């Protein structure tokens, strides 16, 4: 069972209530300004329906966006076209990123990194990002913390209900993997249409991510608690990493 297929078409109605994309973008752009980052080329990985992409693209000359879900990209492309905004959308696996272009800023937000379930694949992903950054380019991404995935989401069941959409979300935790089984009922006329999706996220320890970043050649600039200018704690739910592509000098 694939994820982000039919869900893509109702994604914004459900997620936009909980995520302040404008705030996240403002934090990211403030960091870019503080780091005197160039604003020619921007790449958003795991872009989904393009909500963060849309907030950041006005500050850059060229914007590219990548996602593995064709359905999510379709929603994003329709949204940008209707608003007259120009973005180059690519359907690609971020662990095998190959765009033949380098960027000043790369982002990957809303825990897309947790969807990479194997440490070796995360290492490949970080290396791909490194290779697509310009010298001293910045990579900003977030993850659901180990605490959130194992202690909060864990083996719990959630549900949501309004007049148009009802869903049941059941989680199963085993060996640091959280398998999420979602059943949706979407109102269509007087009836409800059912569809099911399965999502999986891997819980990564904080130091595990730091080590993989270092091995890929990144320098950590800042680590934040959920796009707030404060240090993470043992109960932080979303960890934000701000890293730079280090330039090696040989003399």
Automatic annotation (TrEMBL):
The keyword Ligase does not apply. Its EC number is 2.1.1.234. Keywords: Methyltransferase, Transferase. InterPro entries: Methyltransf_25 (IPR041698), SAM-dependent_MTases_sf (IPR029063). SUPFAM superfamilies: S-adenosyl-L-methionine-dependent methyltransferases. It comes from the Bacteria. Residues 43-137 form the Methyltransferase domain. It is an enzyme of class 2 (transferase). This is dTDP-3-amino-3,4, 6-trideoxy-alpha-D-glucopyranose. It comes from Clostridium magnum DSM 2767.
């Amino acid at each position: 069972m694939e994820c982000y297929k039919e869900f893509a078409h109702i994604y914004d109605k459900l997620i936009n209530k909980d995520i302040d994309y404008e705030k996240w973008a403002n934090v990211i752009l403030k960091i870019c300004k503080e780091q005197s980052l160039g604003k020619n080329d921007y790449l958003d990985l795991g872009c989904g329906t393009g909500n963060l992409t849309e907030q950041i693209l006005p500050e850059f000359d060229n914007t590219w966006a990548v996602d593995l879900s064709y359905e999510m990209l379709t929603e994003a492309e329709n949204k940008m076209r209707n608003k007259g905004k120009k973005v180059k959308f690519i359907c690609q696996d971020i662990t095998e990123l190959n765009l033949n272009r380098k960027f000043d800023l790369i982002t990957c937000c809303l825990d897309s990194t947790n969807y990479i379930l194997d440490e070796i694949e995360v290492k490949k992903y970080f290396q791909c990002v490194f290779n697509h950054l310009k010298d001293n380019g910045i990579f900003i991404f977030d993850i659901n913390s180990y605490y959130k995935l194992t202690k909060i989401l864990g083996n719990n069941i959630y549900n949501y209900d309004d007049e148009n959409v009802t869903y049941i979300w059941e989680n199963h935790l085993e060996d640091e993997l959280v398998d999420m089984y979602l059943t949706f009922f979407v109102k269509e006329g007087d009836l409800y249409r059912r569809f099911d999706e399965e999502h999986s996220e891997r819980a990564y320890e904080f130091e595990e991510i730091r080590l993989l970043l270092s091995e890929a050649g990144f320098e950590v600039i800042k680590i934040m608690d959920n796009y707030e200018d404060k240090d993470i704690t043992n109960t932080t739910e979303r960890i934000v990493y701000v890293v730079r592509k280090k330039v090696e000098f040989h003399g």
